[in-house]
Amino acid sequence: MPQPGMEPLSKMAPELNAKLRALAHDLSNSIETIMQASYLLNQAALDDTSKKWVSLIDNATRDAARINREIRELLRAQAS
For the whole model, what pTM was predicted? Predict the structure, then answer.
C-alpha cells in the first residue's frame, strides 16, 4: 500500500509501466533467493559474529522485499 501522505502519481506510459513491473518481478526473485540462503545459513552452526551478519542480511532483505512490494503496488495502480 502506498505510504500515507503520498500524492497520487500521474499516469506513465504503458510500455514503461510494463518494463518496471518486469524489473520489479525479477528483483523479487533475487530477493527471494537471498532470503532462502539467509534462512539456510541460520540453520547452520555459526559463531556469534556470523549470526549477527546473517541477521543483518535477513533484516535488509525483508526491508528490500517490503519496498519492492510497495513499488509493485504503485505500478499495479498505474496500470489500472
Answer: 0.79
Q: How many domains does the chain fold into?
A: 1
Inter-CA distances, 69 with 18, 43, 51, 75, Å: 15, 27, 27, 10
Task: Say if 61 falls within a structural domain.
Answer: yes
**DSSP states along 18-79:** HHHHHHHHHHHHHHHHHHHHHHHHHHS---HHHHHHHHHHHHHHHHHHHHHHHHHHHHHHHH
pLDDT digits (tens, 9 = 90+) for 1-31: 455 666 666 788 999 999 999 999 999 999 9
